[in-house]
Amino acid sequence: ARNDTGRTGEPVIRIADLRKTFDSGSIVACEGVNLSIDTEDFVVLLGPSGCGKTTTLRCISGLELPDSGEVVIDGVDMTGVKPKDRNLAFVFQSVALFPHKSVRGNLQFGLDMSTKLSKAEKKERVEDIAKMLGIEDKLDQKPSSLSGGQQQRVSLGRAMVMEPAAFLLDEPFSALDAKLRKRMQTEIKELQGRLETPMVFVTHDQEEAMAIGDKIVIMDGGVIQQIGSPYEVFNEPVNQFVAEFIGSPSVNTIESRLSRSSGGFVLENDLFSLPLDAELPAAVTDGEPVTFAIRPQYIHVAQPGEELFSGTVKLVEPQGDRDTVYLDAEGREIRAVVPQNTVAPEEEALSLTIEPDKFWIFDESGGRLS
Ligand code: ATP
């Protein structure tokens, strides 16, 4: 229904150099935010509490006016335009349906004012969307007789009938129980593919972000740290913040230093020393303090002759198909993910090794060296 104007090259939403402060400038909620959102995008704004994701979404929606920067929707500068004139639809955590109206009445509410559609066309659109959401048999019921997930579907449907340029969703599933939440995540992703309308989804839950997003925007301190696919943010984090924020169980970090040796550099810490094959930036100095980081998935129980360091098993946490093992290595917690039932839960010393080339080195400010 949209993007059939023949316009090419222009994203559906473009945010340029957005900056928003509160309390006369003392709180910088977001800064230097640049983002392009295309028709096929499922964008997730992800980050810890207070990182600026909601403020960014509210600036897109028009609920918040940025201090500077612009918000362009379908090629039109909308920066100062009222929320209702932006052709965007919101879905929030709290459902806020009209309790006295039927599901049909709730779905149709946004269309009631429209003079563009005939009565029959409105009815048809509402019924199509109810079918798409699997609530066509609930149309004549009141919201109070629906389950939480069905109510959230009605609220989504109410946004869908408007055929907006994009959907903005602020933690829409955080009030649902874990199982239903998973199901809604699958449904919304599938729905987005069919609607061909971009979605911008705010969450602080990295597993939710990885499950639904194809473009994950990771924010910290009001600034975008990385934009990438789930694969990229997991496997190629640009800095230590992203490496630590993404992944469960979380990445292992070990304070280390780099020492120059004949062929290049050796990484050293109180557990092991590791000659490095990788090229390091020319500015790296001898003795430079760095952080060595490796995901638990890439620490393995060593075969004879392979040991890089050892650790004592503290806890084995079954994950179903694999186990997470918590080890103590020289007073440091090391997390490893191993095939199920390969490590006994006793306090046993294990020889460990790492998968080569699966680690990262970060400098003191968290920037990636290798
Ligand atoms: P959360 O997940 O907790 O909602 P968030 O990442 O969405 O966090 P924002 O709500 O965008 O973060 O907030 C970013 C920063 O701006 C925070 O420091 C917050 O306290 C501040 N902030 C947001 N809205 C306001 C406001 N209306 N007045 C003052 N400060 C605000």
Can you summarize this structure?
This protein is an alpha+beta fold and 370 residues long.
Helix-strand layout with pairing:
Layout lengths: L12 E10 L4 E11 L4 E5 L6 H9 L6 E6 L2 E2 L10 E5 L10 H6 L10 H14 L15 H13 L5 E5 L7 H18 L3 E5 L2 H7 L2 E6 L2 E6 L1 H6 L4 H6 L6 E9 L4 E4 L4 E3 L12 E7 L4 E3 L7 E10 L3 E8 L2 E8 L9 E6 L4 E4 L8
Parallel strand pairs: 3-8, 3-9, 6-7, 7-8
Antiparallel strand pairs: 1-2, 1-4, 4-5, 9-10, 11-12, 11-14, 12-13, 14-20, 15-19, 16-17, 16-19, 17-18
Bound molecules: adenosine-5'-triphosphate (ATP).
Membrane topology: Peripheral membrane protein
Subcellular location: Cell membrane
Protein name: ABC transporter ATP-binding protein
What does this structure look like?
By secondary structure, this protein is α+β, with helices and mostly antiparallel strands. It has 2 domains: 226 residues, P-loop containing nucleotide triphosphate hydrolases (Rossmann fold, 3-Layer(aba) Sandwich); 114 residues, OB fold (Dihydrolipoamide Acetyltransferase, E2P), CATH 2.40.50.140. It contains 8 helices and 20 strands. A 6-stranded mixed beta sheet has the order 6-7-8-3-9-10, sandwiched between helices. It has a 5-stranded antiparallel beta sheet with strand order 13-12-11-14-20. The longest helix is centred in the middle third of the chain and has 18 residues. It is globular, with a radius of gyration of 25 Å. The two termini are 46 Å apart. 34% of the residues are buried. The N terminus is likely disordered. The chain binds adenosine-5'-triphosphate (ATP).
